[in-house]
Design a protein that fits this description.
The protein is mostly helical. The protein is built from eight helices and no strands.
């Protein structure tokens, strides 16, 4: 396998981490210069490690209501979205399920309802990853239970035309939150959740016709 092949997923998630750290929680913008010079495996690995460290540094570690969340967490329909996206980025960048940062984030995500489509979809991605990769049977069972809830939410939230609003009531909406929702559903099904074929028929009709 070539270096490009081996690292194409890693580069994707490196850019995802960069988006989170720079776009949402204000990490050092100089870190973005790394992405332009990723021409060896070692440089890719080092860049991922640097951005992972930066992202972990933005997590709230003081016990209380916001313990485990990430700095500049949003409110309203997007509440919990920063933490869900940051946690997903860490997991997909190789941070193990038993890392303290993941455990704290899981605690936060488990205890907050996340009212919006973006945040629910990204949290479903977190649960799906843990169902498939956590080394603890207890963690896998817990993640599966939460994933079932978020899957049901995402299926219910879809409008009759395959479009999504920003919340369960279908308020507003656009193709951005719609594609996040479909990603969350896809990740859930890939992790073993059962989603009826008519859901995917609506998805296909909306996006392809």
């Amino acid at each position: 396998m070539s270096r490009t092949q081996r690292h194409s997923p890693a580069v994707f998630f490196l850019n995802l981490i960069y988006f989170v750290t720079i776009g949402y929680i204000g990490a050092d913008p100089a870190a973005g210069q790394l992405i332009a010079h990723l021409n060896t495996d070692e440089k890719v690995d080092a860049a991922i490690e640097e951005l992972v460290t930066s992202l972990k540094g933005q997590q709230i570690k003081v016990h209380g209501e916001h313990y485990g969340s990430f700095a500049d967490e949003m409110a309203g329909h997007h509440a919990g979205g920063v933490t869900a996206l940051a946690t997903y980025s860490l997991l997909k960048s190789g941070v193990p399920w038993h890392d303290d940062s993941i455990k704290a984030a899981v605690e936060y995500l488990s205890n907050h309802p996340l009212p919006g489509t973006y945040s629910r979809a990204m949290r479903a991605g977190v649960w799906a990853h843990l169902v498939q990769h956590a080394g603890s049977e207890e963690m896998r069972r817990t993640a599966k239970r939460f994933l079932q809830r978020d899957t049901e939410w995402l299926v219910r939230a879809m409008k009759s035309d395959g479009f999504y609003g920003y919340d369960i009531e279908g308020l507003g909406g656009d193709h951005s939150c719609s594609q996040f929702a479909v990603y969350g559903a896809w990740a859930a099904q890939d992790a073993g959740m059962e989603i009826q074929i008519n859901y995917w028929e609506k998805v296909a009709k909306h996006w392809l016709e």
